[in-house]
Amino acid sequence: MVVFNDSRVIRARLRGIRPASGGRFEILLLSENQVNDWWVMMKPGKRVKPGSPLRFNDLKGQIDAVEAVVEEKNAEGHCRLRFGGTKDLRDDLERIGEVPLPPYIQRSAGMLTAGDAVRYQTVYAQHAGSVAAPTAGLHFTTRMMDSLKQRGVETAFVTLHVGPGTFAPVKEEDLSRHPMHEEMFEINARAAEQILKARSEGRRVIAVGTTSMRVLESSAARNGGRIAAMRGSTRLFIHPPYDFKAVDVLLTNFHLPKSTLLMLVCAFASPGSLTGCARVLNAYHEAIENRYRFFSYGDAMLVM
After folding, report:
1. CA-CA distances (angstroms) from residue 179 to 61, 131, 169, 170, 182?
2. If you ran DSSP here, which 8-state letter would residue 59 be given?
3. CB of 206 within 8 A of CB of 250?
4. Is the peptide bond preceding residue 240 cis, with omega within 30 degrees of 0?
5. pLDDT tens-digit profile, the chain (304 residues)
6. d(Cα 105, Cα 296) in Å, to the nearest integer?
7. Between 3.40.1780.10, 3.40.50.150, 3.10.120.10, 3.40.50.1460, what CATH number should domain 2-8+116-303 receive?
8. Most buried residue among 14, 140, 217, 253 by CB atoms closer than 10 A?
9. Domain positions in the chain
10. Helices (DSSP H) in the chain: which residue ranges?
11. Which of 283, 304, 301, 303 is nearest to 136 (CA)?
């Protein structure tokens, strides 16, 4: 049983100007409170104050009808924006939004290639909401998905909308003090039934990516170790030692130092103990020796 995260990346990066000063800025949409009411990450944004008006550019660099007002700022420096000039901002993202490629993938402002919108999206993406791709899934092509089916490998799809907080470095010495960002997830009835059946038959459950893993383990943690259909949010931080309840095998890319994702992989490499870190670092050493690629468009490893 192979479990995929079918969240679709939205065009979450917008650019514009501040009418008062003419200064340029960009935002990354983080979470939607309700229609046209979003929390965003703004750059530069230290000096922006509640009440400040904003105008946005389309993908050709022209001023668009979409505008916004800063309503508040939180302790993390994120801004809450109320959008105007649109019935629903989501409907205008194809016209004014850019694919939110990670900053280490270099593109000039407004110079994304036509292929970016295709490459930074899994072939099975369905439900729009992520601001970063579930990158382990980028290794799967339509041909490969067909091949799995022909070989009798069953697949199931869950949803977790990936936020930028997933990649935030851990700065606390005490891991219990690290603030995990909330991410929305869903397991529908069909997927829950499939996974429960696979486990009852003794088949291995393979999570494609840390996001699929967090969906399954979040559900199991709340339902006595069983997968159940549910919709909600999770702040689950998996780090050594951790006893896994729902996943047997993990396919994942190579992650940054000090990241929660690397800690999850270390926990999975040796469930219930603290020895997984050494095993994972040995794998990373081999990856560096053999010039594997890291990050979103990089190589992957299978942890069994």
Report:
1. 37, 19, 10, 9, 9
2. T
3. yes
4. no
5. 999 999 999 999 999 999 988 899 999 999 899 999 999 999 998 888 999 999 999 988 899 999 999 999 998 889 999 999 999 999 999 999 999 988 777 776 555 566 788 889 999 999 999 999 999 999 999 999 999 999 999 999 999 999 877 767 888 888 888 888 889 999 999 999 999 999 999 999 999 999 999 999 999 999 999 999 999 999 999 999 999 999 999 999 998 888 899 999 999 999 999 999 999 999 999 999 999 998 888 999 999 9
6. 9
7. 3.40.1780.10
8. 14
9. 2-8+116-303, 12-96
10. 89-96, 116-119, 142-150, 189-200, 210-222, 260-269, 276-289
11. 301
What phi, psi does 82 have (nearest 5°)?
-105, 115
Domains 2-8+116-303 and 12-96 share a fold: no
Global pTM? 0.91
Q: For residues 281 and 179, what is the distance between their CA atoms, to the nearest angstrom?
A: 25
Cα(237)–Cα(218) distance, integer angstroms: 10
With a CB cutoff of 8 Å and minimum separation 6, the contacts of 78 are 30, 39, 40, 41, 42
The type of residue at 233 is S
Length of the chain as a residue count: 304
Fold entry, domain 12-96: Thrombin, subunit H (2.40.10)
Q: H-helix or E-strand containing 252?
A: strand 249-253
Distance CA 100, CA 183 (A): 17
